[in-house]
Structures are given as C-alpha cells and as structure tokens.
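Per-record layout

source: Arthrobacter mobilis
name: histidine kinase
length: 491
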Amino acid sequence: MAIFTDPIKDYAEFGPGDAEWLHLLVGDWQLIADLAFADLALWFPTPDGSYIALAHVRPSTTHTVFHTDFVGERIRADLKPLVDLARQTQTIERSRETNWTTEMAMRVEAVPMVRNGRTLAVITSHMDLSSSRMPSRLELTYRQCAYDLLHMGTLGLWPDFASPTGSRRGAPRVGDGLIRLDAEGIVQYASPNGVSAFRRLGDVESLEGRSLAEVTTGLLRDRRMVDETLPLVVTGRMPWRTEIESRGVSLSLRAIPLRNETERFGALVLCRDVSELRRREMELVSKDATIREIHHRVKNNLQTVAALLRMQSRRMVSEEAKQGLEQAMRRVATIALVHETLSQGLAQNVDFDELISRQFRLSAEVASPSRKVRTERSGEFGELPSEFATPLALVINELVTNAVEHGLHDRKGTVWLTANRKRRDDKAEILNVCVADDGVGLPEENRSEGLGLQIVRTLVTSELGGRIDWKPREGGGTRVDISLVLDHPPA
C-alpha cells in the first residue's frame, strides 16, 4: 500500500506530525477493513476543490468491491458530495441511497480524519450489500468495533502514536482472534478463534462475562517470566503488544483502547497463537549457535593439526622435509583463521578485509624470518561467502609466500596486495585481486611445477571458477592477477 504524502506536502497545510499520522493510519487500517467487511479509500483534498486517492485497502474477511487500483486518481463525481459533507461537518456521513453499480449494491460511508481540529483527509468505506442476509453476532460486533475506531479517527484519537509500529513476526490480526472488553476489562465478546487461542493455554470454557486479566493470570504457570506490559494489555488500558507463554503455547496479544471525547469505554484485544512461529525461530537460533560452535571446534582442531605439524617439522633432519611440513602448517593455519572468523558472527559471510589484513602480514613474516619485507594493501574485498573466503585466503597465502621466498630471494623488498570489486555492464559482480612484488621477476623455467603454484591454479580455476595470470611487473618483479565472478547477472 503506497501513500502519496510526499508530493502533497507542497500544497498541504500540514502541522507537526500530520504526515506521520497519515502514514500511521495507512500502516494500521487493514484492521478497520477487516472489521468493517469493506474496502477503504483515503482521499486528500486538492487545491482545485477535488480529491485524490492516497491509498486503498481491501478486506481479508470478505471479497473486495474494487478489483482495479485507483490510487493517484481523482474522486468520482457521484462520491464527491458525500466526502465534501463529511469534511465540512467533521462527522461520519452515510449515503442516503444505496449506491448501485453494474455488479452489486454498496453502502458508502465517509469518515473525516481530524487532527488538532483540522480535517486532514477523508476515508470512504465501501461495503457490498448484494448478498444480503441476517448478520451474525460476530459480524455485528466487528462492524461496531470498526465504527468505534473510525469515530475515534474523527476525534483525532486513532491512530495512536503509542501504538506499536514494529514488524515483529506473529503480530495478531482480526481473523486470528478478537476479544472486546468493557471499561473494567470484562469480556463482552470473544470470537471463536479468540476463545480457541486461550483454550490452548489451558482449560478455558468461556471468556464472556469474565475478567480477561484474571483468566490470563490463572493460565500462567511461571509468573516470574511475565512481561511487565501484560497487565496493561489484558485490561485494554494501553495500545501495546505483549506475549505470554504457558504449557508450551505462545500467545501474542495486542490491545487497542476505545475512547470517546471524555473517557475510555472499552478496548479491543487481538490475539494469535504464535507457538509454531516461535518454535521455528528458536530452531533457527539453535541452528545458528550450532553452526558457530562447529566453526569454533573446526578452528580448534585445525590449530591442533598445525601445532602437530610444527612439532613434527622441528624433529625432521632433512631441510626439505622440514620446509614441506612448515608449508602444510601455514596452509592449515590459514583455513583455521577463516573458521575462527565464521565462529564469531551470525552470517555465513566473512569480512575478508579484516581477515586478510592479519593473514597478509603474517604470511610475509613467516616466509622471511631473517629479512625485512614490507607489505602494502589497497582496495576492499568486502564481505565474501565462506565458500569463497577459504580458497581465496589459501591462494593469497601461497602467492605471498611464493613472492617472498622466490621473488625477493634473500633480498629486501615489498609485496603488494590490491583488491578491486565492481560490477560489469551485464550487472555481474567481479572481484579482481593482484599480488605483486619488486623481486627478481619471472623465472625462465616452467612456473607451474611447484606444489604451491599447482594449489593456486587448482583453487582459482576449480574452487573459485576464476582466471589467473602471471606477468612481469612494470618496474621490475612479478605480478599475479586473479579475476573472480562473485555473482552472475539476473536472468
């Protein structure tokens, strides 16, 4: 549902909070449409004396009377006099004659939305009368509730800025269960779904004629865990939401106080059984915690393997075997670092810039314990999925180690790491990574014979689905360019 308050601010005499009040109205008027069994349209006066439709809502409790969208259009000539009258009198006006269309008969009401003595807009309610029958008690109660709320709109008492505006899953709706209270909190009417919702909390035969606060209190087993807003909600004194849980059942409640010019004369309480929703949310939370714990344990196990490899390398007599174990230790430690990062967050994405900053310096220092090698990093990798982060960290580790051990080869120098993330013309997101050094340059013999470079080539082409290219660096040394497609353009 869109509301055109932004363009009309140019010629509307809005006071502080008026535009926000209309937004709050449209955000909550599905409630009115469901209670009134009617379509609602919001009309705003224009400078030329006409009206423009700001918003339209269809009921979920019955069929709609308007199948086409007319938001942004001007009001029909036959509807304008009724809207003019409601705007002038600032009272609810009903059409004296039944409004017949080619398909149905409609009853139309015009409700001025008045704030601080000024009519900001007018709501029209359109209800189908073609399927006339004796209305049930539920329908009569619902329509009375809708009238009471709309009447509060003419007094500027509804919508209330104290009403909840959050989008918490499981917010109760009219069809989930409705209970009407009097000023003392005694239940005047409870819909069948409302009664069923409370029966799931315990053995409740009926609600009508009983205090909802006493019924609710009697159903709670552990009163220490009760939300402090509960008493004000179940007595209908404040327009808040709360949630109660007992015997494995979770019930979401929302109160809407009913007021007139002088006092509060009752309240509506919407209720919804959200047990299944909360169970699924708890499962997701549990899964997130389990995944983080798995990453933490994998990290610990990999660090143990790295420590064992380090201990074994110290006992080796052969220098070649010792170097091989040390290289394996560094590779395991790199994978462990990715899992450590994943174990600290909720998402399965890695802040790769933070991870690689530590790994980049560490790789250069470990590969050159007796020489001073500078490292410089530029650009941003951004957040990467874990399936990208692990192989890419290994690739960078191998390339930096190779640059230090072979490119700089017993000399001082610098290793550069550059990242460039952008979108191509076809909307595909590309990550370009460059590892360069100012060392001796590319050797004449085959560059792909070493195990480290074989690992790099395999990871880039197979695991990352990218391209890799070695070339001489301008100014001396070697440059390795990697290009990866992070996501493909939409079809």
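summary: The first strand starts at residue 39 and ends at 45. The chain is about 40% helix and 25% strand.
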